[in-house]
Each structure stands twice: as C-alpha cells, then as structure tokens.
Amino acid sequence: EIIKRIQKQFPDAHDGDLRQKVAENLRVCFLKSPKGGQHYKDGQTLGLHSKCFIVCCYIGSQNLYLCDLAEWGVVIDDADSVQNLKTQYWDPMWKTSFLRDDCDVQGVMDGLSIDRTAPQSKAEMTLEQFEKMKEKIRAASNAPKEEEKKYTAKKKAEGEESDGDDSSDSEAED
C-alpha cells in the first residue's frame, strides 16, 4: 500500500526508478527471536502486530494493507522519546530480525496490480474464495473442520436449484 500511494502521488514516475528507490530505502522483514528462528517452541509463528515508522514515530495498529479493522495509533514527535524508543525497542529487534532476503522487492513490485480487495462477508464469497480462506485458516490455526463442512454444504446448496430434497442437511452432518 505504501508503494501504491507513491505511484498515485507521482503517476509519471518511471517503474525502474521506483523499483530502485524501494530497493534502496524500504526495509521489510520477518520478526525473529534473539535465540534464533521465527517460531515458538510449539511451532506457532512469532508475531508482533505493531508498525513502526521512524520519521518522527507512529505506533499503532494501522495496517499496511486494506482491512476493515479499527486503526488506532499515536504520533510521537518528541526527539528524545523517539530516540529512546529506537534505542530500547527498534534497534535490538531490527538487529535480530533483518535479513535482506526476507523481502523480494521485485516480487512485491510485480504484484502491485493484484486485486487484494476481499468480500465484505462470507455471504459474498464464492465457493472457491471460501475454500481458499478455509485452507489458510486451517494452516494457521488448525481450525475444527466440522463448522467448515456445514458452511460449505450450505454454500453448495445455495448454488443449486432447490428440488425440495434435504440432501444438503445430511452432507453437512458427515
């Protein structure tokens, strides 16, 4: 979203120049533990949902992607406070986490035209979208499959013409 905003603000910017500026100035990485790795002992991925832009300093929940969440944050414009935050929080985390290979800048730039808007509710999803979402949820959190089966059966039933038969109910209970 940052790069898309730059493209919108500077529509005449050449693609090669923008790619070079992003490669030289934007740093994105995965959070890592000082003891090494990106996972807790139980296999769950380390996570930290805060975003930190050190210009002055913004701390909050504003995502770098479109979503329907409340976005709250605070801008810190006191130089001593920002320096303290950088020294105690940012520098140690960055030293442990940043690897240049974490972010494929050219891959990111090539993917800017992908439509990442999502349906507003499950009711607006196609069966294919729901199946993809289900796979991601299952991979991330081992979600129970029973609820998913019921929803899938319901979506399939909605997609077929009703002939008065209750076969979709038995399918959902399998």
Explain this structure.
A 3-stranded antiparallel beta sheet has the order 1-2-3, with no helix packed on it. 1% of the residues are buried. The chain has helices spanning 2-9, 15-25, 79-97, 105-110, 127-141, 145-159, 167-173; strands spanning 51-53, 58-60, 73-75. The longest helix is centred in the middle third of the chain and has 19 residues, at 79-97. The protein has 174 residues and is mostly helical. It is globular. It has 7 helices and 3 strands. Strand 1 (51-53) and strand 2 (58-60) form a beta hairpin. Helix 6 runs antiparallel to helix 7 (167-173). 47% of the residues lie in helices and 5% in strands.
Topology:
Layout: H1 2-9, H2 15-25, E1 51-53, E2 58-60, E3 73-75, H3 79-97, H4 105-110, H5 127-141, H6 145-159, H7 167-173
Antiparallel strand pairs: 1-2, 2-3
- Termini gap: 43 Å
Mean pLDDT: 74
Helix fraction, binned, reads 40-55%
| Biggest sheet statistics | 3 strands, antiparallel
State which percent range the strand residues make up: 5-15%
Task: Name its key features.
mainly alpha, globular, three-stranded antiparallel beta sheet, 7 helices, 174 residues
Short description:
The protein is mostly helical. It is 47% helix and 5% strand.
